Every structure is written in C-alpha cells, then in structure tokens.
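Write out the 3D structure for:
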Amino acid sequence: MSARKILPIATPDLTSYAHLAYHLSILYTDKDALRWVYANFIQLYVKDDVMVDYYTQNPDCSLVPSIGGSPRMTKNLIRRFSPSFTDFVRQCIDEGYYLSTFVDEFYIPGTVAYRNRSNNHGIFIYGYDDGSRMFHVSAFLSNQSYGDTLVSYEDMEQGFQGIEPRPFHYTFYTHLYKLNELYKPFFGFYAPWVMEQMDDYLHAKPSDRRMRAFEETKTPSFIWGMDIYDWMRNKIERQMARETMIDHRPFYVLWEHKRMMNRRLAYMETNDFYVCSTEVLEGYRKVEQAALLIRNLKLKFLMSFDNRYLEQLIARLGALKAEESLVVERMLEEYETSLRLGDENARRLQNAL
C-alpha cells in the first residue's frame, strides 16, 4: 500500500496574508489554541507606508503559544542534508510537521503564475500521497483567495529548486510548524488583555512601547489603530491626484478585522469570558457590513478605474471610523463598569461574612 498522510487544517478568520493564514490554519483545528487566537489580532498598524497588518506575534520570528517552536531552515541546509526536497517534505509530515516555504509559482496549479511566468511566493504543505504522487497544499490562488490545491511531486521539486533567493531574505527560509501538545492546554483567554488592546486600537497608541526589547528602529514611525483610517483616506486622495497607488489589501484587512471582532465577541459569549451588550454586538455587526461595502467599492474601482468610487470611499471611511469609535468606546465603558460592579459585589460579600 502506498504511503499517505494528510495533517488536519481549518480555514481561519484571517487570510489576508500568507504569514497569517498558514499558521492560523493549524491553530484553528484546536480548541486550546483558539484561546490564544481570539485573545489577539486586535491592534492594527501600517508599516513601510504600504502594508496594514496585525500587531501580534508570528511564529516565524516570535514565540507563539500552542506552536511547538518554529524551526527555520535555509534552502542550502535542506539541500545539503536532503537533496530531494520531496523526500524532506514527506519525512517532516510523517513527524507531524506542517511546512511553509517559497517556490516558483510557475509550477503551482491554480495560481496566476502557473505555466505563465516565474513568481517567487509562499506555499503551505500539509499532506502527501505516494499513490497519486501529489502534495496537499494551501496557497493564494488565481483569484487571490486562500485555498487548497494539489501539486505533483515533480512540480514541487522544480518549484523549490528553481529559485535562488538572496541570503537572509525571508524567502530564503522554510519553516516547520507543529502544535505544542504539552504547553497549549495552559494558555487561557484573558479578557483584560483583549480590552487593553482595544484601548490601544481606539486611541492609536504605539503598542510596540510595551517592551523595549521588542522595539524596532523605525523611520518613519508606524501608524497605529484608528489612525489607519486617516492614512487610507490620505492615500486615496493622493491616488486621485495621481501621486501614488493603494491596492486592495488594506481594504481587505480592514473588513477582515471587523469580521474577526464579531467572531471574537461571539467566542467570548459562548465560552463565558465576557458578554457585551446588545448595543455593542449590533453595533459591531453594522461596522462589519460597512467595512465589507468599502472593500467592495475598492474592488469596483479596480475593475472600472472610475474616480467616483474613490470619492465614495473617502466619505465612507470617515463615517466608518466615527461609527466604530463609538462602538469601541461603549464596549470599553461597559467593561470598566462591570469591573467596578464586580469589585463592589465582592466587598459586600466579604463584609457579610
């Protein structure tokens, strides 16, 4: 019988970037790991004046609870100890490791570059089948959405061996992931930490000031939290003046952030961590709908290049910022009130004993 092994994956809430989607596809398979997921991915920031991202640890460069480390191997090291990348992947999966690596998408079915042009991009490998000689992978496919496809052993070998990224560049590495079965049960969901991040997001506080050891030397400084709305509006105005371009990804992240917030609020309620008021829950549902409309307007502009859509985006971003600010303010006020009431009730109980 031919060997075959496919590790479990799930579709995560966040699929805007490969560095999010790949390891979250693993964490979403495990109820213990989900506690860490829903306690994070709240604060947003802009880096390099281009990319809107979540200010949360990534296993490729930081410790992430529930992930059993993240061994990082260079392409040259893999070639030295395993000339066949196919054999290397099969051995890793047999040991329960998922892999993310960089390949030439010319060889990856379903991608825009497939059999069309050379393009170095990340791919996530979670299974193999010797009978069909196929790897099971996740990637960003031709419609730029995160999905699954099959890649033959031969195509994967050519895709991996066919690129030569420069040393120390992020494309130079292959990462291995595995759930940390020993540690993940001990990580709990901490509602105060969620609210602390929400406060940073609301007031556009620089979250990298929490620990000096993690600060980066940045010129210019990052843009944080709610200030991202103003950054996006400025970019659109400059695009209308033909001074710059802003692509669809910040708009996708903005909508995805609101969707994630609604999933988080539902998770908190389901697991009795904290229950928001009906007003907050309904408010954030409307915020998500508004963010989706904004994302769709950006896509309509990309199909038509009609500046009327950009004008609508400017107006709707301002309205959404005001609407979300009110909802977050209310949520934080309600949470602080619940803490005060809890302290008062605890004192009354203590006095009664």
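The chain has ten helices and ten strands.
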